[in-house]
Amino acid sequence: MGRKKRVPEFEETAPDDFDPANPYKDPVAMLEMREHIVREKWIDIEKAKILRDKVKWCYRIEGVNHLQKCRHLVRQYLDATRGIGWGKDGRHPSLHGPKVEEVESE
Length: 106
Hints:
The protein is mainly alpha-helical. The chain is built from 3 helices and no strands. It has a domain at 27-86.
């Protein structure tokens, strides 16, 4: 008789009662929101790792033709790595990419 392995249960969506304007109003919702954000970041990081392994495999298999054959994987990998991670600058993920210069209209 062995023990049954239990899988921890968690919500896959953000908590409904979290108020971003006043995060300390409900401490339980704040912690649930923090766990949700961390879980989503880890998922994005692991997706990027899988894509990185695919790029490595493609480079190794394709050899000298890797520039043409692996271009789509490299683009997916670069898009997946943009805006993820644990940076302390607090910027929104859309601001992590390359700077886009605004064109002045006449």
